[in-house]
C-alpha cells in the first residue's frame, strides 16, 4: 500500500434494515449512505449461510463440498453476483469502476455489522468478469472500543519484526483422538508437505525449536503456560493452526470462544473442562487469573500478544458476529496485536476435500492457505499480500472449477488491521 492509494471506510449498522455508509479518506470522491431492506438482507445472508460448511449438522460438511452453492463455479458465481447486488451500493460501485478503468487499486476498510460479519466482500462480483478483490484491497476495521481501549498497548511490527515466530501447529488436545471432533486438523504430516517445508525454511525463527520439521506438529507440550513463557520472552508473530470453538451469536457470550491447546483438565482457567482438557478461552486471555488466583495477573500480562497474529481455525473471527465482540479477535487486539487474520466460518480440512469433495489426493488447500497467510504476515504489506493470494485463488477457481480451488477456504479469511492508513504506508 502506498500513501497515495485511495482508501474508503465502509461501516454498517443493523437496525432492522441494514444501514451502510462510506467515505473516501482523501476526499477524492463523495461518500454516501445506503439503506438495504431487512427482508433483502435476511434473504442474502440466509442464502450465503446455507452454502457454508456446518460440521455439527448431519451432512453439513459434505453438502458444502458437493451440492452447496460454493461447491461449483456456476452456482458460486451466481451467489457472488447476488451478494454484490445486495450489499455493494451503486454509487460506490461506480467509483470503484472509475478507479479500475484508471488502473488504480483502492483499499476498502470495512466494519461489518454483526448480522453480515460472515459475508466476504472479496468474493462479490460487481461485474461478471470481476470479483471485488480483483479491483480493490480489502481489510476489516476493528471495533473502535477495542482499538482505543485505555489498557491496550499495541506492539509495533516495525520494532518487533526480527523477533521469533511462535508456531502452534495442530497441537494434540488431551483426551481427543486424532479422528475425533477435536482431533487433527492437518492429518499425519508428510516431510514433503507444504507446511513441513514452511517449518524447514523458517526453522531459525520458529518457536518451538525442532530438529525435524515434522516434530513441530501434533505436539503435547504446547499449553497455555508454555505459550505465556514464549510470548513474554518476545515474539514478532503468532501462527496458530488448530481448533477454535466459537460461541453461538444467540448466546450473547462472545468471551466464551475457546482456543484448544495441549492444556490438561487440571489447568486453571475459566472454560469448562472437556474430557481431559481445559480450553483457553477469550475470557482467560482478557482477564488472566482474576478471581482464580491469590495473586492474579491480567491476560495481557500472562500472554502479551505479538504484533501480528494468524488464527487458522474454524470461525476464529467469530466475535464480529456479536454486538459486543469480546472473543478471540478482541483478546488478541487487546493483548497487543495490531493485525489479525482469522476465519469467518468453519474450514474444511484437506482430508474433507479429498474424501467428501473428490479433490485430488495431492491437493492441500488448507495447508496452502496457511503458507500464504504466513508469508503475508512476514511482508511489509500483509493485507495486500493476502488479497493477492485470494486473487490467484479466484483466478484458479474461474479457470478450473475444481473443488480444491473453491472459496470455501480462501474466501474464509479476513484481516483486521488496526493501523491508520498513514501508519500502513510507513510500515517497513
Give a topology summary.
Layout: E1 7-15, E2 17-24, E3 32-36, H1 38-51, H2 60-66, H3 73-87, H4 90-101, E4 107-111, H5 132-135, E5 137-140, H6 144-147, H7 157-160, E6 165-169, H8 194-201, E7 206-207, H9 224-232, E8 237-241, E9 244-245, E10 258-259, E11 280-281, H10 282-287, H11 299-302, E12 308-312, H12 328-334, E13 339-343, H13 350-355, H14 365-377, H15 382-400, H16 407-410, E14 413-417, H17 421-426
Parallel strand pairs: 1-4, 4-5, 6-7, 6-8, 8-12, 12-13
Antiparallel strand pairs: 1-2, 2-3, 9-10, 10-11, 13-14
Helix pairs in contact: 1-3, 14-15
What does this protein structure show overall?
The chain has helices at residues 38-51, 60-66, 73-87, 90-101, 132-135, 144-147, 157-160, 194-201, 224-232, 282-287, 299-302, 328-334, 350-355, 365-377, 382-400, 407-410, 421-426; strands at residues 7-15, 17-24, 32-36, 107-111, 137-140, 165-169, 206-207, 237-241, 244-245, 258-259, 280-281, 308-312, 339-343, 413-417. By secondary structure, the protein is α/β, with parallel strands linked by helices. Strands 7-6-8-12-13-14 form a 6-stranded mixed sheet, with helices on both faces. α1 (38-51) packs antiparallel against α3 (73-87) and α14 (365-377) packs antiparallel against α15 (382-400).
Fill in the keyword field for this structure:
single chain; 428 residues; alpha/beta; Nucleotidyltransferase, domain 5; Rossmann fold; 6-stranded mixed beta sheet; 5-stranded mixed beta sheet; 15% strand
